[in-house]
Amino acid sequence: MPVEAKPLFRPDVLRPHLAGFALPTIDSVKLKHWASEISSGRIDRFGEQEILPHFLADIFIGLLGYTGPAGQDRYTIGFERHVQVDGKYADAVLGEFNGHQHYVVALEGKGPRDPLERPYAGRRMSAVDQGYRYAINLPCDWIIVTSIRQTRLYHKGSDQQTYERFDTEELASDEAALRRFLFLLGADRVTPAAGKCHFYRLLAESEQVGRELTKEFYINYANMRQDAFEQLSRDNPDAPRQEVLSSTQKLLDRILFVAFSEDRGLLPADSIKSAYEHRDPYNPRPIWANFRGLFTAINSGNQALGIHAYNGGLFADDPALDTLQVSDDVCRYFRELGSYDYRPAHLATGEGRGIDVDILGHIFEQSITDLERLRNELEGRVEPQGAEKHKTRRKKEGAFYTPAFITRYIIEQAVGGVLADRLEQLRVAHQKKASGTAKAALAEPGVYELDTLSKPANASLVAFWEAWQDELATFRVLDPACGSGAFLIEAFDQLHATYEQSNDRLAELRGYRTLFDLDKRILENNLYGVDLNEEAIEICRLSLWIKTAAQGKALTSLDHSIRVGNSVVADPTVHPRAIDWQATFPEVFAQGGFDVVVGNPPYVRQEWFTEYKPYLQANYAAYHGMADLYVYFYELGLRVLKQGGLLSYIVTNKWMKAGYGEPLRRLFTEKAWVESVVDFGHAKQIFADADVFPSIIVARKPTQEAKPEIARLCTIPREQLKVDDLSRQIDTEGFELPQKQLGADSWQLEPSLVTHLMAKLRESNVPLSQFVGSKPLTGIKTAFNQAYLIDGATRDALVFDDPNCGRLIEPYVRGADIGRWGLENADYWMIVIPSSGDYAWPWAESGSEAENVFETIYPSIFAHMKRHEVALRKRSDCGRYWWELRSCAYWDSFKHPKIYYQLIQFHPCYALDSAGVYGNNKTAFILSDDLYLLAVLNSPLMWWHNWRFLAHMKDEALAPNPTVLENIPIAAPTPIVREKAACAVLRQIQITNAYQAMRRTILDWLRVEHSVIKPSLRLQSPTSLDSDAFVAEVKKIRGKKNPLSAAALKSLRDEHAQTIEPARVQAMEALQLERQLSDLVNEAYGLTPAEVALMWKTAPPRMPVGN
């Protein structure tokens, strides 16, 4: 069966929009004319160039309301728009064109006989392929393709099986279809004069509803499973609970398959409902007997019930399940699960929300998670000593669901890459044997004019495409940790498209189409999956069966190719589910191994498989005692590949630099050719609930050819990840990387020019500690902040009670109070009582009387501390007495001028402190008041350097640990540079201090005068707002129930003019100073114009100051 098409927007999302859309009055004459031309067949006499311009004029301009350039200052459709990247022309582009070009939709048209989804008449690409390429290269996010008969809307970030479809004949005869067409593609909503194209909102709403429905359905599904499992356990006390759990899941798998099949015409409608409601008054029996009869009918067929034999293993006899006592209450869950709507989204009707195959995919993945947790509880497993605590077994077992855009990219690179190589090898081999017109035809076997082919040329092309189908039949794809089957499903789709392309070519060349079961061929010949988790394998099989089920066709048995096993252990004495790969899959290794290995190997910490380490050490060259499990999946993947095959995993990037990855890196230098690396940093868009640093690697198993000298690398910080445009982003932002940078030592994932510039910065300058004459120091660690860190009100109360205690209370800053150039005055205070080992307190030598002495001298501080005595005494890190702070060798340093910085850096924020402020344990400081040094630390160049030099923390924050920061390179400036930098920094500090004072004043004024108690983030940055935006933000916070009076409105505008507007002018000055300082620092480091350009081209996220 063809791969199922899915709508771009959920019908239940579109329904209310369509209901509220007033159908405009239109002239339907031209639309009916086009429908008549199509139905009569007259349209087939014309080609694309003859007819497409007229169709676009009548439908897109006349009906949908787009405007062309003739006599228009602003127009919304442009024709034959040139695409710079590949030099081609899109037939049309929808967007806004009024002096500047804003592309929204790329439009590609074909003639009425041309299929849209496959190349036709010898063309290289289908209309859809061309449309996607235009959208990528223009760029824009949406694609429309039309063949006159049919028009489709695609989204660049979705696959080619996801689109909205409009049939021209139906538009002329069905008002509902016309309403949908006009609403979705109407110019007023696609290219509005103000705001974004409404496709974005509809897609976001569809995705949100999908997430909500997935969550809602899974909660119900999981509760059903839990309740059914508990009921079955009670009713079958002699059955092992592990066995009951497996049977429970298998029952639900069967019911899901039946529900899906009956809603899609594969089984009689309401099969589940009938089995649940059927009663025989003459021979009463449990409802379970009806369901057993239904399962038997599906397994073996039942002509009386109109059920074909589907078999495949899912409904085969299962003694453990068949002997269970299943109550009517459990069967009620079957009825409830079957009541959802599983029809294809475009067939769903009514107000119900459908469960599509994408939702089922997420349900299956989450099922694996919960089943692992349940089995873990049944087995009474406990976490190993020192292992990180996790909320679910999912994290512990390392299973994270891979997003569709990642699986699609990996399969495109790995499966698509190998297939492209094999196709070219086959072409070359056939062309060498050919001569004359046959040889010429084989120069490009997919491009030909059918009517002009000679018989020898035609025969050579038929032989080539037949040989290609034979080649495809032996193409093997493996996922060695397949989980719910996401990678195998994507591989199925892409292989299906490849088979269909060859089928189409042969049908054109022969004049007839050969019929064979394509789904069965792919499942039996091309896809292999292994997983340690038995339920994962059952669910993976179910996913593939649901994908390929067709009426009257038996399910393909997957027992051989999709199986339970421990992929990295081959010895059954070590693990009962060990896999001997060559013995298990002899048909694969008879041809040298798998062509492609893909997947998301499990992220299992090394503490969890301690008992298997002796085996791994003896059998894996990549072994390291601290290596996590995914390391061994890399070596396993390379082992089972055939020469020239490709491996592609998504896995953490830590092994590329960590010590435990050194054996694996060495293995890669010897046993693999790295073709590409994509490093995503700490991208939460990929694994939202996992603290990992994902990367994708594509590596080839070496052949007899010479090793390539370069690989392709693309580093994508998480703020810059383009989920909807990943392939283009990698193509345009990636760069060539010498293979020598991918050796056994830590991988240097940077362009060679960046590596050279980093070396220049290090070698030509001196370390920070040498430049300053001292090392950076950390703020104060109190070990109990509640006692020592106080606010202004508490400080005032303590001093009021005892003015003498004021000498012990000092202002302090938190990391959050450190800005660029200046410290924020947050009215925080620290009670500073150094250890009497460092300071000669009156009680230092008082022994048992020390507490009384402390109370006598500082009574209010003593009373405050006394309230926390129990907690303070429990500290292991304190002074000689319980109220004192830990020993510190540099207490006096806090009183000196210094440069403060944060120990968790999201932005480069270094600030001068000349007032002797103390810092907490989230701060550090450099003992210097050198304004030039401050300029360096805050510069774009130093952020560029530190991004590569400092360790990265959660959410891509930098960790400027003093012991590391002391080694950053500082250039010695010329006297002129130092003087200019000092002047600019002084002015920058003045502007910063003025801005902070203004900000405090304006927020306090808003609180008192306009009841703005909780200012928004925008109001907290008042210089970013003009007068209208300032008023609008205040209105939004006050709400409709508390509108602004005329006087209040005037006061807001007056205050903005008097207070904020002058600060906005200063902000522009500050920006110019930032750029001046950046240039001065670049000059001090001796950067050439080319090196400055390189710095900005390879700039990390959150660079201070734009280029």
Automatic annotation (TrEMBL):
The keyword S-adenosyl-L-methionine appears for this protein: yes
Domain of life, per lineage: Bacteria
BP-aspect Gene Ontology terms: DNA modification; methylation
InterPro entries: DNA_methylase_N6_adenine_CS, MethylTrfase_TaqI-like_dom, N4_N6_ade-DNA_methylase, SAM-dependent_MTases_sf
Endpoints of the signal sequence: none
Type II methyltransferase M.TaqI-like domain ranges (all copies): 525-687
Reactions the enzyme catalyzes: a 2'-deoxyadenosine in DNA + S-adenosyl-L-methionine = an N(6)-methyl-2'-deoxyadenosine in DNA + S-adenosyl-L-homocysteine + H(+)
MF-aspect GO terms: hydrolase activity; nucleic acid binding; site-specific DNA-methyltransferase (adenine-specific) activity
EC identifiers of the protein: 2.1.1.72
PROSITE patterns: N6_MTASE (PS00092)
Pfam families (alphabetical): Eco57I
Name of the top EC class for this enzyme: transferase
Keywords for the protein's UniProt record, in alphabetical order: Hydrolase, Methyltransferase, S-adenosyl-L-methionine, Transferase
Family to which this protein belongs: Belongs to the N(4)/N(6)-methyltransferase family.
Name of the protein described by the UniProt record: site-specific DNA-methyltransferase (adenine-specific)
